[in-house]
Amino acid sequence: MMPTGRFENQQSERANTLKRPGLFITLEGIDGTGKSTQYRLLVSYLKKLDCSVCATREPGGTRVGEQIRRVLLDSSTKKMSALAELALMYAARAQHLEEVVRPALTRGQTVLSDRFNDASMAYQGYGRKLGTEIVRALDRIVCGPTQPDLTLMLDLAPGVALRRAQGRELRRNSRHGRFEAEGLKFHERVRRGYLAIARQNPKRIKVVKADRPVNEVQSEIRKLVEEFLARHQRGKALGVRASGRKWRLTCGPQSPMPNH
Ligand code: TMP
């Protein structure tokens, strides 16, 4: 049995609150849930609303991080130990936090990251069976109080998700399939991990069913994000306010969108 770490999670939920002007939103889910499509749609929606978004991803988001990503995802990378894999995820994360995430949050931008530290807990902690303690220990060192404020977790049966993910890799003739190449049992553990993390962090993590048409999933995501931004209204610093029945989001100057 994995320890729940409920107390620690509640502590970090509290510690997260409003120490910096920007808000930190992450998207998570097992491979093949359609997460990256939903991420792109959400980024362009927030841009249209004039929200200053820093759109980024993990592993990656920086030059160093993208180099580490290639090693981690390339199926020609053989025999990497689970601990080495976790350490590389956190090495990329340390760079990402220092170069991208923390400066953007300090500027008051809304950071939207395609994956962050819940992925390490789910994939390495549960999927690779490293356990939760070791992931938490690294997380305390690398992320410390910089934790997501809202996480949208796409959920789909691993059998369906894996078929989708493997089909996509095949169509792209991609070599970047080290995680997709893992069997169903691995992805079932990862999903169990994600759902356990969601249960332990009910305020932060919203589970979104992904076995629906893309636009339905996106509508639910937008609603959750709008509600969240409105709830965290902090005067002009964020400029999020309700105007009539529609939320009007004006989150400061537009930020450049890093491509990935
Ligand atoms: P994606 O960016 O296309 O979703 O792929 C990233 C892959 O890396 C995905 O299979 C999940 C995996 N991953 C981890 O195993 N641990 C992590 O901490 C992160 C950020 C990603």
Can you characterise this structure?
Strands 2-3-1-4-5 form a five-stranded parallel β-sheet, sandwiched between helices. The protein has a two-stranded antiparallel ribbon with strand order 6-7. Residues 13-18 and 234-260 have low confidence and may be disordered. It has one domain: P-loop containing nucleotide triphosphate hydrolases (Rossmann fold). By secondary structure, the protein is α/β, with parallel strands linked by helices. Helix 4 packs parallel to helix 6 (132-142). The chain has ten helices and seven strands. The protein binds thymidine-5'-phosphate.
Please give a quick description of this structure.
Helices cover 53% and strands 14% of the residues.
Keywords:
260 residues, alpha/beta, Rossmann fold, five-stranded parallel β-sheet, two-stranded antiparallel sheet, 10 helices, binds thymidine-5'-phosphate
